[in-house]
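Anyone able to model this chain together with uridine-5'-diphosphate?
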Amino acid sequence: MLTIIVPCYNEEETIPLFFKAIESQKKYLNEPIEYIFINDGSQDESIKKIKELGLQFTNVHFIDFSRNFGKEAAMFAGLQKASGDFVTIMDADLQDPPELLPEMLMMLNNNPELDCVGTRRIDRNGESATRSFLAKTFYKLMDKISDAQLVDGARDFRMMRRQMVDAILMLTEYNRFSKGLFTWVGFNTEYLTYNNRERVAGETSWSFKQLFRYSIEGITDFSDLPLSIATYMGVISCVIAVLSLVVIVLRTLIFGDPTQGWPSLASIVLLLGGIQLLCIGIIGKYVGKIYLETKNRPIYIIKDTDLDVSNKSDIEEK
Ligand code: UDP
Ligand code: MG
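re: yes, here you go
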């Protein structure tokens, strides 16, 4: 069986279109499909649309969150409840082309060595130039400083074997950065490429600010380089301080002591103060993450679902 996980946040318009698009691919897939729609605290009628589908088709399941927990939480919930041998995660807005599904399944069926087929956008048409630039920079930076090698343009849209899904489920951290987790667990992954598409309806729920925060999360979840920045800057300023001390002592011995340099002194004090605050901020960011992890809160809370009720709420599991 193939499980398709669909995180939905305010997707009332796209859900029926999405379902139709997948059903049109069904004839090319020689596996039965199980749908899991996760309603991530939508303010619109998304849950109604999902339940309507559920009434018509017995293979459509829903998980209704008690509030908006974010796409990461929705994907995790879907992975936990998925029962297929193959599991796919897809956006509801049809930005992930359903036509790729048969090819992905075929690749996995034909090659037992392969554990996962991912997808990658080769362009970012329809996206603003600044947004593409920032995204590219982020991928390059992540590649350099973290131990999770991200693939440029890789989407969450991927088809995985059961074994890989189980591996991801072992990572129960609260701060989830799935793009990193998918590569961190390893396994053989091949990527299909496609040209970017725009969403069929509705609007993206990601603002610039959120994307920026998301990238900071990504960096701090997978790299401790920012923490070392404090050490590097400390070493550099010590060296500079020692050098200038020598210069000042020599200058005083040779030229006497003309009282000079208040502006430069003030700048130096400000600069060092700034660097110290920056470093405290960086450390604070990591401490904050530790704080959230140690609280051991559930990643999501389910209000209603037609799936396995025994673990209806993640709280009971913990
Ligand atoms: N999504 C979600 N919870 C959120 C935000 C988004 O489940 O808090 C879902 C959304 O419904 C969609 C997918 O995640 O299926 C991708 O979101 P979106 O299309 O807004 O992001 P973009 O494609 O612009 O990166
Ligand atoms: Mg989208």
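The pocket of magnesium ion (ligand 2) is lined by residues 91, 93, 95, 199, 204 (CB under 6 Å).
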